[in-house]
Amino acid sequence: MQKIKLGSHVKMAGKEMFLGSVKEAESYRANVLMLYTGAPQNTVRKEIGALNIEAGWEYAKKAGIEEIVVHAPYIINLGNTVKLETFELGVTFLEKEIKRTAAMRSRILVLHPGAHVGAGEEAGIAQIIKGLNLVLDKNEDDVFIALETMAGKGSELGATFEELKRIYDGVHKKDRLRVCFDTCHVNDAGYPLVEDYEGVLQQFDEVIGLSQIAVIHINDSMNPCGAHKDRHANIGEGYIGTDILKKIVHDGRFAEIPKILETPWICEEGSKEKTIPPYKEEIAMLLEV
């Protein structure tokens, strides 16, 4: 039986940096992982030489971890036409993140497509296409940008499969694009995963193609289908539920695709502070047949 690629988001910090990330993933019995190259809310980044990449991969091979995913920071908004400096920062920083992703030996950089911040869907999508072309037309790294399916809160773009397809259609180097399929976001965007799992996947296949999914975020949702909220819940504690999330984890069509948990940390008994990662238990739960 083929090993299911399942892991979680992990930290990269302190002296150990990437080595620490791998050790954290190993403690959850994960065989893939996802990380940010620095804080997702800012542009502060260590030099590539300080990330401890070689030691991390040496340890990863012994731990059975052969693949990692990088997530771009939230501060990148390629959809912004209102503040030109925000768009320009996004383009410049995305260029750097692709280089860092390649240096980390990852082929997948997950990116939130962007938000139109009031300018409207058409203007926002055109700006995302412009930004991706500015970045990809001159970049030759062996890295895919995986556009994440979004929940549709606020002015987020990419909440429908058709919006993602429109971005694909405008990008010159379409072969450098992929999709990150987030179960919570797809549910919150209004796709009935629970009631019609096969129907939703068929719809995605017809619009974009299942072959374009490069990573899956496995998250339950605190909100019902179509809520446009984007609040992740722990596995089995939300509106999607364990059965459907296990179904997607075990779906043979996604055997080669890394599946990443981004579920909330939990509180110790009697505490209101979320200090305990749930990933070891959730990974074990999802792997049960």
Task: Give a brief outline of the structure.
The protein is an alpha/beta fold and 289 residues long.
Class inferred from helices and paired strands: alpha/beta
Q: Total number of β-strand segments?
A: 14
Number of helices: 9
Q: Element order, helices and strands?
A: EHEHEHEEHEEHEHHEEEHEEEH
Multimeric organization: single chain
Q: Gyration radius, to the nearest Å?
A: 18 Å
Uncertain segments of ≥5 residues (pLDDT<50)? none
> Strand share of the residues?
15-25%
Largest sheet: 8 strands, parallel, barrel
Q: Helical residue percent?
A: 25-40%
Provide an overview of this structure.
Helices cover 36% and strands 17% of the residues. It is α/β, with parallel strands linked by helices and 289 residues long. An eight-stranded parallel barrel has the order 1-2-3-4-6-8-9-12, surrounded by five helices. A two-stranded antiparallel sheet has the order 5-7. α1 runs parallel beside α2 and α4 crosses α5. The relative contact order is 0.13.
